[in-house]
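Bug #2210: token dump truncated for AB hydrolase-1 domain-containing protein?
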Amino acid sequence: MGARYLINSLNADRQKLYSIAHFEFLYSIAFVVGHDWGAEVAWHFCLFRPNRVQALVNISIPYRQQSPELKPTQAFNQVFGDGFYVTQFQVRDCQHELSSNIEEQRSHFPNMTATILKKLLFINAPDPLAAAPGVEIIDFLETPSSLPPWITQEELEFNACWIHGRFALLLNWKQLRPRQGLKIAIPTKFVNIGFQSFGTKDYINGEVFKSSVPDLEVLVIDGHHFIQLEKAKEVTQAILSFFKNQSLP
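Reproduced locally. Full output below:
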């Protein structure tokens, strides 16, 4: 399960897509857009293949350089406790994730994931987003009484079917340690949302983010987690206008 969310593996897939596009359509360079976990993949694709990216727009998840010594799961636990939503979404035991019960876990996961996604549509929770001790985050978050007009039940369930397990933050940290300290050299526009958890507002306005992504523009659009759906026209315009200003070599 967790291996599906390893950044190295996902960027290898992206590299294959790039190669196909280059061979079939003679595209030599890409404009990249990412959101949430896709933003993490996009940040690191720009680190892995900067010569193949003309410009980047990332939504809601900023680029954070991690400590090469302190494990991210340990850092989150120290600061936010076991109830922090990122901690609860991690693979706790990789061997368990790869156990003989994996098919049974997969059969139940889409329903649970659809519930989590629905709860994330309109987050109304404290910052940091953490459940009380002994409480699962899925039980802590309120469930909207109805879906917003910008997403249907069918679309929600479709998205849930593509999520097959917990995220492997620790495994990614181990694989990416050799690249810690590198900067994003690509022209970048970062679109942040109104709800900003665990200090994101201060971070994106601070010097660490700006020094890690030197060629950076920041746009804040008031909304929720799925801002690209909630404010589709505004987000699309921001993406297209930024890319239009980035001339091809």
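Output looks complete on our side. The domain at 2-244 is CATH 3.40.50.1820 (Rossmann fold). Marking as cannot-reproduce; reopen if the truncation happens again.
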